[in-house]
Amino acid sequence: MCGLVGIVGKSDIAPDIYDALTVLQHRGQDAAGIMTCNGGRFSQRKSEGLVRDVFRQQHMQNLRGSIGIGHVRYPTAGSSGAALAQPFYVNSPYGIALAHNGNLTNSEQLARELFQDDLRHLNTDSDSEVLLNVFAHEMQTLGKLSPTAEDIFTAVAAVHQRCRGGYSAVGLVVNYGVLGFRDPFGIRPLVVGAREGALGTEYMLASESVALDVLGFSLISDVAPGEAVFIDMQGVLHRRQCARSPSLRPCIFEHVYFARPDSLMDEISVYKTRMRQGEALGRKIRRLRPDLHIDVIIPIPDTSRIAAQSMAHELGIKFREGLMKNRYIGRTFIMPGQSQRKKSVRQKLNPVPLEFEGKSVMLVDDSIVRGTTCRQIIQMARDAGAANVYFASAAPPVRYPNVYGIDMPSASELVAHGRTVEEVCELIGADWLVYQDLEDLVRCSMEGNPEVEAFDCSVFNGEYITGDVDQNYLDRLESLRNDDAQSKRRSALQADGALVGIHNDA
User: Fold this and answer.
1) CB atoms within 10 A of CB 283
2) Which of 232, 247, 262 is the last residue of a domain?
3) Helix, strand, coil % (nearest 5) of the chain?
4) Does residue 35 lie within any of the structural domains?
5) CA distance 396 to 178
6) Which DSSP state fits 385?
Protein backbone atom coordinates (compact mmCIF):
# COMPACT_ATOMS: atom_id res chain seq x y z
CA MET A 1 0.00 0.00 0.00
CA CYS A 2 1.93 3.01 -1.22
CA GLY A 3 1.25 6.64 -2.07
CA LEU A 4 1.65 8.01 -5.61
CA VAL A 5 1.92 11.51 -7.06
CA GLY A 6 2.48 12.75 -10.60
CA ILE A 7 2.35 16.41 -11.69
CA VAL A 8 2.66 18.24 -15.00
CA GLY A 9 3.08 21.92 -14.14
CA LYS A 10 4.30 25.18 -15.61
CA SER A 11 7.26 25.68 -13.26
CA ASP A 12 9.40 23.60 -10.89
CA ILE A 13 7.02 21.15 -9.25
CA ALA A 14 9.26 19.30 -6.75
CA PRO A 15 7.95 21.39 -3.79
CA ASP A 16 4.37 20.47 -4.74
CA ILE A 17 5.27 16.78 -4.99
CA TYR A 18 6.95 17.01 -1.57
CA ASP A 19 3.80 18.53 -0.05
CA ALA A 20 1.61 15.89 -1.68
CA LEU A 21 3.79 13.05 -0.39
CA THR A 22 3.61 14.54 3.09
CA VAL A 23 -0.17 14.42 2.88
CA LEU A 24 0.03 10.79 1.71
CA GLN A 25 2.56 9.77 4.38
CA HIS A 26 -0.05 7.53 6.02
CA ARG A 27 0.14 5.25 2.97
CA GLY A 28 3.81 4.37 3.55
CA GLN A 29 6.56 5.18 6.02
CA ASP A 30 9.35 2.91 4.81
CA ALA A 31 10.85 5.09 2.06
CA ALA A 32 10.16 8.11 -0.14
CA GLY A 33 11.33 9.34 -3.51
CA ILE A 34 10.88 12.12 -6.07
CA MET A 35 11.99 12.19 -9.70
CA THR A 36 11.71 15.21 -11.99
CA CYS A 37 12.58 15.87 -15.61
CA ASN A 38 14.22 19.06 -16.90
CA GLY A 39 15.75 19.57 -20.33
CA GLY A 40 15.83 15.86 -21.07
CA ARG A 41 17.54 14.93 -17.80
CA PHE A 42 16.16 13.07 -14.80
CA SER A 43 16.89 14.32 -11.29
CA GLN A 44 16.15 12.00 -8.41
CA ARG A 45 16.27 11.77 -4.65
CA LYS A 46 15.06 8.71 -2.80
CA SER A 47 15.93 6.95 0.43
CA GLU A 48 14.53 5.07 3.41
CA GLY A 49 12.58 7.10 5.95
CA LEU A 50 9.75 9.60 6.21
CA VAL A 51 9.31 12.35 3.64
CA ARG A 52 10.54 15.00 6.06
CA ASP A 53 13.74 13.01 6.68
CA VAL A 54 14.53 12.00 3.10
CA PHE A 55 14.45 15.47 1.52
CA ARG A 56 16.63 18.40 2.56
CA GLN A 57 16.86 21.88 1.09
CA GLN A 58 19.78 20.99 -1.19
CA HIS A 59 17.83 18.01 -2.57
CA MET A 60 14.85 20.18 -3.42
CA GLN A 61 17.06 22.75 -5.13
CA ASN A 62 18.47 20.02 -7.38
CA LEU A 63 15.07 18.57 -8.28
CA ARG A 64 14.36 20.90 -11.21
CA GLY A 65 11.70 20.51 -13.83
CA SER A 66 8.02 21.13 -14.52
CA ILE A 67 7.08 17.43 -14.64
CA GLY A 68 7.73 14.79 -12.01
CA ILE A 69 6.49 11.86 -9.96
CA GLY A 70 6.75 10.89 -6.29
CA HIS A 71 6.27 7.83 -4.09
CA VAL A 72 6.00 6.84 -0.43
CA ARG A 73 6.67 3.17 0.15
CA TYR A 74 4.92 0.64 2.27
CA PRO A 75 6.80 -2.65 1.83
CA THR A 76 4.83 -5.69 0.71
CA ALA A 77 6.26 -7.91 -2.01
CA GLY A 78 10.05 -7.85 -2.15
CA SER A 79 12.32 -6.82 0.69
CA SER A 80 12.78 -3.38 2.16
CA GLY A 81 15.86 -1.22 1.84
CA ALA A 82 17.22 1.81 0.06
CA ALA A 83 17.50 0.05 -3.30
CA LEU A 84 13.76 -0.68 -3.13
CA ALA A 85 12.82 2.97 -2.76
CA GLN A 86 10.88 4.29 -5.75
CA PRO A 87 10.58 5.61 -8.42
CA PHE A 88 12.44 3.01 -10.49
CA TYR A 89 14.13 3.98 -13.76
CA VAL A 90 15.15 2.38 -17.07
CA ASN A 91 17.06 4.20 -19.79
CA SER A 92 15.61 2.27 -22.73
CA PRO A 93 13.54 3.29 -24.49
CA TYR A 94 13.51 7.09 -24.13
CA GLY A 95 14.17 7.05 -20.38
CA ILE A 96 11.18 5.94 -18.31
CA ALA A 97 10.56 6.18 -14.56
CA LEU A 98 7.67 4.58 -12.69
CA ALA A 99 6.21 4.43 -9.19
CA HIS A 100 3.75 1.69 -8.26
CA ASN A 101 1.15 0.89 -5.62
CA GLY A 102 -0.05 -2.70 -5.24
CA ASN A 103 1.15 -6.23 -5.97
CA LEU A 104 1.47 -8.25 -9.16
CA THR A 105 0.30 -11.79 -8.51
CA ASN A 106 2.19 -13.16 -11.54
CA SER A 107 5.42 -11.28 -10.82
CA GLU A 108 7.65 -14.39 -10.87
CA GLN A 109 6.36 -15.48 -14.26
CA LEU A 110 6.82 -11.97 -15.65
CA ALA A 111 10.37 -11.76 -14.29
CA ARG A 112 11.26 -14.96 -16.16
CA GLU A 113 9.66 -13.66 -19.37
CA LEU A 114 11.50 -10.34 -19.09
CA PHE A 115 14.85 -12.12 -18.79
CA GLN A 116 14.36 -14.97 -21.24
CA ASP A 117 12.18 -13.39 -23.92
CA ASP A 118 12.40 -9.62 -23.57
CA LEU A 119 16.12 -9.62 -22.68
CA ARG A 120 15.70 -7.10 -19.88
CA HIS A 121 17.65 -7.05 -16.62
CA LEU A 122 16.04 -6.74 -13.18
CA ASN A 123 18.14 -5.37 -10.34
CA THR A 124 15.77 -6.09 -7.43
CA ASP A 125 13.05 -8.55 -6.40
CA SER A 126 10.43 -5.79 -6.45
CA ASP A 127 7.33 -6.36 -8.57
CA SER A 128 7.35 -2.58 -9.17
CA GLU A 129 10.53 -2.98 -11.20
CA VAL A 130 8.83 -5.83 -13.06
CA LEU A 131 5.88 -3.58 -13.92
CA LEU A 132 8.21 -0.83 -15.14
CA ASN A 133 10.12 -3.21 -17.39
CA VAL A 134 6.97 -4.73 -18.84
CA PHE A 135 5.77 -1.24 -19.78
CA ALA A 136 9.21 -0.26 -21.13
CA HIS A 137 9.37 -3.42 -23.25
CA GLU A 138 5.93 -2.78 -24.71
CA MET A 139 6.97 0.79 -25.55
CA GLN A 140 10.15 -0.49 -27.17
CA THR A 141 8.31 -3.00 -29.36
CA LEU A 142 6.40 -0.10 -30.94
CA GLY A 143 9.67 1.20 -32.34
CA LYS A 144 8.61 4.86 -32.33
CA LEU A 145 11.22 7.60 -32.18
CA SER A 146 8.64 10.08 -30.90
CA PRO A 147 5.82 8.29 -29.08
CA THR A 148 2.33 9.78 -29.06
CA ALA A 149 -0.44 9.46 -26.49
CA GLU A 150 -1.90 6.63 -28.56
CA ASP A 151 1.43 4.80 -28.37
CA ILE A 152 1.41 5.17 -24.58
CA PHE A 153 -2.10 3.75 -24.46
CA THR A 154 -1.18 0.83 -26.71
CA ALA A 155 1.66 -0.06 -24.34
CA VAL A 156 -0.60 0.18 -21.28
CA ALA A 157 -3.14 -2.09 -22.98
CA ALA A 158 -0.36 -4.67 -23.44
CA VAL A 159 0.60 -4.26 -19.77
CA HIS A 160 -2.99 -5.10 -18.77
CA GLN A 161 -2.82 -8.22 -20.93
CA ARG A 162 0.40 -9.44 -19.29
CA CYS A 163 0.07 -8.31 -15.67
CA ARG A 164 -2.27 -9.72 -13.01
CA GLY A 165 -3.06 -8.40 -9.55
CA GLY A 166 -3.92 -5.03 -8.04
CA TYR A 167 -1.92 -2.06 -9.20
CA SER A 168 -1.95 1.64 -9.92
CA ALA A 169 1.06 3.47 -11.25
CA VAL A 170 2.39 6.87 -12.26
CA GLY A 171 5.16 7.14 -14.80
CA LEU A 172 7.43 9.71 -16.40
CA VAL A 173 8.71 9.54 -19.98
CA VAL A 174 11.63 11.90 -20.64
CA ASN A 175 10.56 14.94 -22.68
CA TYR A 176 7.12 13.46 -23.38
CA GLY A 177 5.02 13.66 -20.23
CA VAL A 178 3.47 11.92 -17.22
CA LEU A 179 1.18 8.91 -17.32
CA GLY A 180 -0.97 7.05 -14.84
CA PHE A 181 -2.95 3.82 -15.07
CA ARG A 182 -5.02 1.51 -12.90
CA ASP A 183 -5.59 -2.24 -12.98
CA PRO A 184 -8.71 -3.54 -14.81
CA PHE A 185 -10.52 -4.12 -11.50
CA GLY A 186 -9.62 -0.76 -9.99
CA ILE A 187 -8.39 -2.49 -6.83
CA ARG A 188 -5.81 0.16 -6.04
CA PRO A 189 -6.91 3.84 -6.13
CA LEU A 190 -5.83 6.70 -8.43
CA VAL A 191 -7.39 10.12 -9.10
CA VAL A 192 -6.70 12.96 -11.52
CA GLY A 193 -7.17 16.68 -10.91
CA ALA A 194 -6.48 20.08 -12.47
CA ARG A 195 -5.40 23.53 -11.27
CA GLU A 196 -5.61 26.82 -13.15
CA GLY A 197 -2.49 28.93 -12.78
CA ALA A 198 -1.20 32.17 -14.27
CA LEU A 199 0.67 30.22 -16.97
CA GLY A 200 -2.12 27.77 -17.78
CA THR A 201 -3.68 24.50 -16.62
CA GLU A 202 -1.65 22.09 -14.50
CA TYR A 203 -2.57 18.43 -13.92
CA MET A 204 -1.98 16.05 -11.06
CA LEU A 205 -2.36 12.33 -10.42
CA ALA A 206 -2.51 11.01 -6.84
CA SER A 207 -3.55 7.98 -4.78
CA GLU A 208 -6.12 10.01 -2.85
CA SER A 209 -8.14 13.13 -3.53
CA VAL A 210 -6.92 14.75 -0.30
CA ALA A 211 -3.52 15.31 -1.97
CA LEU A 212 -5.28 17.32 -4.69
CA ASP A 213 -7.17 19.37 -2.11
CA VAL A 214 -4.05 20.45 -0.23
CA LEU A 215 -2.35 21.74 -3.39
CA GLY A 216 -5.40 23.56 -4.73
CA PHE A 217 -6.20 21.06 -7.49
CA SER A 218 -9.82 20.30 -8.29
CA LEU A 219 -10.81 16.66 -8.62
CA ILE A 220 -11.71 15.78 -12.20
CA SER A 221 -12.46 12.13 -11.52
CA ASP A 222 -11.06 8.82 -10.43
CA VAL A 223 -8.99 7.04 -13.02
CA ALA A 224 -11.35 4.29 -14.15
CA PRO A 225 -10.38 0.62 -13.83
CA GLY A 226 -8.19 -0.28 -16.80
CA GLU A 227 -7.97 3.36 -17.88
CA ALA A 228 -4.74 5.20 -18.71
CA VAL A 229 -4.18 8.95 -18.40
CA PHE A 230 -1.37 10.80 -20.18
CA ILE A 231 -0.48 14.48 -19.80
CA ASP A 232 1.99 15.60 -22.46
CA MET A 233 4.64 18.32 -22.21
CA GLN A 234 2.22 20.86 -23.69
CA GLY A 235 -0.14 20.25 -20.78
CA VAL A 236 -2.79 18.41 -22.80
CA LEU A 237 -4.73 15.69 -20.96
CA HIS A 238 -5.35 12.43 -22.85
CA ARG A 239 -7.45 9.53 -21.53
CA ARG A 240 -8.33 6.09 -22.88
CA GLN A 241 -9.78 2.82 -21.64
CA CYS A 242 -7.03 0.23 -22.19
CA ALA A 243 -8.54 -2.93 -20.69
CA ARG A 244 -10.77 -5.36 -22.57
CA SER A 245 -13.26 -6.07 -19.78
CA PRO A 246 -12.86 -3.54 -16.96
CA SER A 247 -14.91 -3.93 -13.81
CA LEU A 248 -14.86 -1.57 -10.82
CA ARG A 249 -14.13 -3.66 -7.71
CA PRO A 250 -12.01 -1.47 -5.39
CA CYS A 251 -10.38 -2.69 -2.19
CA ILE A 252 -12.82 -2.22 0.67
CA PHE A 253 -9.97 -2.12 3.22
CA GLU A 254 -9.25 1.41 1.96
CA HIS A 255 -12.54 2.42 3.57
CA VAL A 256 -11.80 0.46 6.73
CA TYR A 257 -8.27 1.64 7.46
CA PHE A 258 -5.88 2.90 4.82
CA ALA A 259 -7.44 5.99 3.27
CA ARG A 260 -7.74 9.32 5.03
CA PRO A 261 -11.35 10.05 6.00
CA ASP A 262 -11.33 13.35 4.08
CA SER A 263 -10.69 11.51 0.79
CA LEU A 264 -13.16 10.61 -1.94
CA MET A 265 -12.48 7.23 -3.50
CA ASP A 266 -14.50 6.16 -6.55
CA GLU A 267 -16.92 8.96 -5.64
CA ILE A 268 -17.39 7.50 -2.15
CA SER A 269 -16.74 9.63 0.93
CA VAL A 270 -14.51 7.64 3.27
CA TYR A 271 -15.78 9.77 6.17
CA LYS A 272 -19.44 8.96 5.52
CA THR A 273 -18.60 5.30 4.98
CA ARG A 274 -16.99 5.05 8.40
CA MET A 275 -19.97 6.81 9.94
CA ARG A 276 -22.26 4.21 8.41
CA GLN A 277 -19.96 1.44 9.69
CA GLY A 278 -20.42 2.70 13.25
CA GLU A 279 -24.19 2.95 12.89
CA ALA A 280 -24.42 -0.59 11.52
CA LEU A 281 -22.23 -1.89 14.33
CA GLY A 282 -24.40 -0.13 16.90
CA ARG A 283 -27.53 -1.76 15.50
CA LYS A 284 -25.84 -5.18 15.65
CA ILE A 285 -24.88 -4.69 19.31
CA ARG A 286 -28.43 -3.68 20.15
CA ARG A 287 -29.73 -6.76 18.33
CA LEU A 288 -27.31 -9.26 19.90
CA ARG A 289 -26.96 -7.83 23.41
CA PRO A 290 -29.88 -5.47 24.12
CA ASP A 291 -29.27 -5.67 27.88
CA LEU A 292 -25.49 -5.17 27.71
CA HIS A 293 -24.49 -2.35 30.07
CA ILE A 294 -21.87 -0.04 28.58
CA ASP A 295 -20.77 3.06 30.48
CA VAL A 296 -18.56 4.58 27.82
CA ILE A 297 -17.42 4.00 24.23
CA ILE A 298 -13.73 4.68 23.57
CA PRO A 299 -12.06 4.61 20.15
CA ILE A 300 -8.57 3.30 19.49
CA PRO A 301 -7.11 6.32 17.67
CA ASP A 302 -7.16 7.39 14.95
CA THR A 303 -8.88 5.36 12.25
CA SER A 304 -11.71 4.06 14.46
CA ARG A 305 -12.77 7.44 15.86
CA ILE A 306 -15.47 8.20 13.28
CA ALA A 307 -17.06 4.76 13.55
CA ALA A 308 -16.94 4.88 17.35
CA GLN A 309 -18.62 8.31 17.44
CA SER A 310 -21.50 7.24 15.21
CA MET A 311 -21.85 3.95 17.15
CA ALA A 312 -22.09 5.86 20.42
CA HIS A 313 -24.75 8.13 18.92
CA GLU A 314 -26.69 5.14 17.61
CA LEU A 315 -26.65 3.48 21.05
CA GLY A 316 -27.11 6.67 23.07
CA ILE A 317 -23.94 6.00 25.08
CA LYS A 318 -21.23 8.48 26.10
CA PHE A 319 -18.26 8.79 23.74
CA ARG A 320 -14.92 9.59 25.34
CA GLU A 321 -11.27 9.88 24.27
CA GLY A 322 -9.83 7.46 26.79
CA LEU A 323 -6.60 6.66 24.94
CA MET A 324 -4.11 9.41 24.23
CA LYS A 325 -2.00 8.98 21.11
CA ASN A 326 1.66 9.86 20.72
CA ARG A 327 1.59 11.54 17.30
CA TYR A 328 5.26 10.88 16.71
CA ILE A 329 4.84 7.12 16.48
CA GLY A 330 3.91 5.73 13.07
CA ARG A 331 1.05 3.38 12.20
CA THR A 332 1.83 0.11 13.98
CA PHE A 333 -0.01 -2.04 11.43
CA ILE A 334 2.53 -1.22 8.71
CA MET A 335 5.61 -1.67 10.87
CA PRO A 336 7.85 -4.55 9.84
CA GLY A 337 8.05 -7.38 12.33
CA GLN A 338 5.90 -8.47 15.25
CA SER A 339 8.37 -7.45 17.96
CA GLN A 340 8.53 -3.89 16.68
CA ARG A 341 4.74 -3.68 16.52
CA LYS A 342 4.44 -4.93 20.11
CA LYS A 343 6.94 -2.38 21.39
CA SER A 344 5.34 0.50 19.54
CA VAL A 345 1.83 -0.02 20.89
CA ARG A 346 2.88 0.96 24.42
CA GLN A 347 4.81 3.91 23.07
CA LYS A 348 1.89 4.99 20.93
CA LEU A 349 -1.08 4.88 23.31
CA ASN A 350 -1.61 5.71 26.97
CA PRO A 351 -4.91 5.39 28.87
CA VAL A 352 -6.70 8.14 30.78
CA PRO A 353 -7.53 6.34 34.08
CA LEU A 354 -10.54 8.60 34.74
CA GLU A 355 -12.37 7.10 31.75
CA PHE A 356 -11.69 3.48 32.75
CA GLU A 357 -11.78 3.16 36.53
CA GLY A 358 -14.76 1.06 37.65
CA LYS A 359 -16.49 1.31 34.25
CA SER A 360 -17.77 -1.12 31.66
CA VAL A 361 -15.92 0.06 28.59
CA MET A 362 -16.55 -0.65 24.90
CA LEU A 363 -13.32 -0.25 22.91
CA VAL A 364 -13.74 0.27 19.16
CA ASP A 365 -11.10 -0.44 16.51
CA ASP A 366 -11.25 -0.33 12.72
CA SER A 367 -10.22 -4.00 12.42
CA ILE A 368 -8.41 -6.84 14.16
CA VAL A 369 -5.57 -8.28 12.08
CA ARG A 370 -2.89 -10.02 14.12
CA GLY A 371 -4.54 -9.31 17.49
CA THR A 372 -1.34 -7.88 18.97
CA THR A 373 -2.49 -4.31 19.34
CA CYS A 374 -5.96 -4.97 20.72
CA ARG A 375 -4.67 -7.54 23.24
CA GLN A 376 -2.26 -4.99 24.69
CA ILE A 377 -4.86 -2.23 24.72
CA ILE A 378 -7.40 -4.42 26.48
CA GLN A 379 -4.78 -5.14 29.14
CA MET A 380 -4.10 -1.39 29.40
CA ALA A 381 -7.79 -0.83 30.05
CA ARG A 382 -7.84 -3.43 32.82
CA ASP A 383 -4.69 -2.00 34.35
CA ALA A 384 -6.40 1.41 34.33
CA GLY A 385 -9.23 -0.02 36.44
CA ALA A 386 -11.93 -1.03 33.93
CA ALA A 387 -14.55 -3.36 35.42
CA ASN A 388 -15.44 -4.88 32.04
CA VAL A 389 -13.76 -4.50 28.67
CA TYR A 390 -15.81 -5.16 25.54
CA PHE A 391 -14.35 -4.88 22.06
CA ALA A 392 -15.95 -3.96 18.73
CA SER A 393 -14.38 -4.22 15.29
CA ALA A 394 -15.78 -1.99 12.54
CA ALA A 395 -14.66 -4.66 10.03
CA PRO A 396 -15.47 -8.38 9.82
CA PRO A 397 -12.90 -11.00 10.93
CA VAL A 398 -9.72 -10.83 8.82
CA ARG A 399 -9.26 -14.51 8.01
CA TYR A 400 -7.39 -14.60 4.68
CA PRO A 401 -4.16 -13.19 3.25
CA ASN A 402 -4.24 -10.11 1.06
CA VAL A 403 -2.30 -10.42 -2.19
CA TYR A 404 -3.09 -7.06 -3.79
CA GLY A 405 -0.80 -4.71 -1.90
CA ILE A 406 -1.60 -4.99 1.82
CA ASP A 407 0.88 -6.67 4.14
CA MET A 408 -1.29 -9.61 5.25
CA PRO A 409 0.62 -12.38 3.51
CA SER A 410 0.45 -15.09 6.11
CA ALA A 411 -2.83 -16.68 7.18
CA SER A 412 -1.16 -18.19 10.27
CA GLU A 413 -0.40 -14.68 11.56
CA LEU A 414 -4.05 -13.57 11.33
CA VAL A 415 -5.70 -14.05 14.71
CA ALA A 416 -9.14 -14.85 13.23
CA HIS A 417 -7.86 -17.44 10.75
CA GLY A 418 -9.31 -20.83 11.67
CA ARG A 419 -10.86 -19.46 14.89
CA THR A 420 -14.37 -18.65 16.00
CA VAL A 421 -15.32 -15.24 17.32
CA GLU A 422 -15.42 -16.71 20.83
CA GLU A 423 -11.88 -18.09 20.47
CA VAL A 424 -10.57 -14.72 19.24
CA CYS A 425 -12.33 -13.01 22.14
CA GLU A 426 -10.54 -15.29 24.58
CA LEU A 427 -7.16 -14.77 22.89
CA ILE A 428 -7.33 -10.99 23.01
CA GLY A 429 -8.65 -11.04 26.59
CA ALA A 430 -11.98 -9.23 26.07
CA ASP A 431 -15.16 -9.88 28.04
CA TRP A 432 -17.14 -9.76 24.80
CA LEU A 433 -16.22 -9.27 21.15
CA VAL A 434 -18.40 -8.16 18.25
CA TYR A 435 -17.43 -7.92 14.58
CA GLN A 436 -19.11 -6.06 11.75
CA ASP A 437 -21.03 -8.29 9.35
CA LEU A 438 -19.53 -8.37 5.85
CA GLU A 439 -22.90 -7.64 4.27
CA ASP A 440 -23.22 -4.52 6.41
CA LEU A 441 -19.67 -3.40 5.59
CA VAL A 442 -20.30 -3.71 1.85
CA ARG A 443 -23.62 -1.92 2.20
CA CYS A 444 -21.92 0.97 4.05
CA SER A 445 -19.50 1.46 1.15
CA MET A 446 -21.93 0.70 -1.67
CA GLU A 447 -24.34 3.36 -0.42
CA GLY A 448 -21.80 6.02 -1.40
CA ASN A 449 -21.76 4.94 -5.06
CA PRO A 450 -24.28 2.32 -6.22
CA GLU A 451 -22.45 2.10 -9.59
CA VAL A 452 -19.58 0.19 -7.96
CA GLU A 453 -20.13 -3.38 -9.13
CA ALA A 454 -18.55 -5.02 -6.09
CA PHE A 455 -15.63 -4.68 -3.69
CA ASP A 456 -12.49 -6.70 -3.20
CA CYS A 457 -13.23 -8.32 0.17
CA SER A 458 -10.67 -11.10 -0.11
CA VAL A 459 -9.25 -10.59 3.41
CA PHE A 460 -12.71 -11.33 4.79
CA ASN A 461 -14.14 -13.97 2.42
CA GLY A 462 -11.08 -15.45 0.67
CA GLU A 463 -12.49 -14.65 -2.79
CA TYR A 464 -9.67 -13.33 -5.01
CA ILE A 465 -11.24 -11.41 -7.84
CA THR A 466 -8.34 -11.71 -10.31
CA GLY A 467 -9.00 -15.46 -10.50
CA ASP A 468 -5.34 -16.51 -10.45
CA VAL A 469 -4.77 -17.08 -6.73
CA ASP A 470 -4.86 -20.65 -5.45
CA GLN A 471 -3.62 -22.40 -2.31
CA ASN A 472 -0.21 -23.16 -3.84
CA TYR A 473 0.27 -19.46 -4.50
CA LEU A 474 -0.79 -18.56 -0.95
CA ASP A 475 1.53 -21.18 0.57
CA ARG A 476 4.49 -19.84 -1.38
CA LEU A 477 3.58 -16.28 -0.49
CA GLU A 478 3.47 -17.18 3.19
CA SER A 479 6.88 -18.83 3.08
CA LEU A 480 8.41 -15.76 1.48
CA ARG A 481 6.68 -12.98 3.34
CA ASN A 482 5.76 -14.07 6.87
CA ASP A 483 7.30 -12.18 9.77
CA ASP A 484 10.01 -14.78 10.37
CA ALA A 485 11.13 -14.76 6.73
CA GLN A 486 11.21 -10.97 6.58
CA SER A 487 13.11 -10.80 9.86
CA LYS A 488 15.77 -13.16 8.49
CA ARG A 489 16.18 -11.00 5.37
CA ARG A 490 16.56 -7.85 7.45
CA SER A 491 19.14 -9.54 9.69
CA ALA A 492 21.13 -10.68 6.65
CA LEU A 493 21.21 -7.18 5.26
CA GLN A 494 22.33 -5.76 8.59
CA ALA A 495 25.03 -8.41 8.94
CA ASP A 496 26.41 -7.48 5.53
CA GLY A 497 26.72 -3.93 6.69
CA ALA A 498 25.45 -2.44 3.46
CA LEU A 499 22.95 -2.99 0.74
CA VAL A 500 24.29 -2.72 -2.76
CA GLY A 501 21.71 -1.14 -4.98
CA ILE A 502 21.49 1.20 -7.93
CA HIS A 503 19.86 4.41 -6.82
CA ASN A 504 20.71 8.07 -7.22
CA ASP A 505 21.26 10.62 -4.49
CA ALA A 506 20.42 13.88 -6.20
Assistant:
1) 14
2) 247
3) 35, 25, 40
4) yes
5) 39
6) T
Please state the φ and ψ torsions of residue 405, each to the nearest 5 degrees: 120, 10
Closest listed residue to residue 352, CA positions, set 343, 344, 361: 361
Measured CA to CA, the distance from residue 55 to residue 280 in angstroms comes to 43
Q: Are 271 and 306 in contact (CB under 8 A)?
A: yes
Same domain for 242 and 334? no
Any residues with CB less than 8 A from the CB of 302 and at least 6 apart, and which?
325
Task: Return the CATH number at 69.
Answer: 3.60.20.10
Domain of 284 in residue numbering reads as 270-449
pLDDT level of residue 497 (50, 70, 90 thresholds)? very low
Q: What is the pLDDT of residues 151-206, one digit of tens each?
A: 999 999 999 999 999 999 999 999 999 999 999 999 999 999 999 999 999 999 99
The number of residues in the chain equals: 506
| Residue among 378, 484, 473 nearest 429 (CA) | 378
Beta-bridge partners for 296: 318, 361
Q: Mind listing the pLDDT tens digit for each residue in 250-305?
A: 999 999 999 999 999 999 999 999 999 999 999 999 999 999 999 999 999 889 99
Contacts 24+ apart (CB under 8 A), 87-93: 87/33, 87/35, 87/44, 87/46, 87/172, 88/126, 88/128, 88/129, 88/132, 89/35, 89/42, 89/44, 89/132, 90/120, 90/132, 90/133, 90/136, 92/136, 92/140, 93/136, 93/139, 93/140
Buried b / exposed e over 443-478, threshold 16 CB at 10 Å, is ebbbebbeebeebbbbbbeeebbbeebeeebbeebb
The average confidence (pLDDT) of the chain is: 91
Asked if pLDDT for residue 136 goes beyond 60, the answer is: yes
* Span 430-475, pLDDT tens digits: 999 999 999 999 999 999 999 999 999 999 999 999 999 999 999 8
pTM above 0.85, yes or no: yes
Residue 444 is among the residues annotated as catalytic for this protein:
no
Residue 497 falls inside a structural domain: no
Q: Which of 458, 74, 72 is nearest to 252 (CA)?
A: 458
Task: Give just the sign of the alpha carbon dihedral 491, 497, 503, 505.
Answer: positive
Distance of CA 337 to CAs 85, 342, 496, Å?
Answer: 19, 9, 20
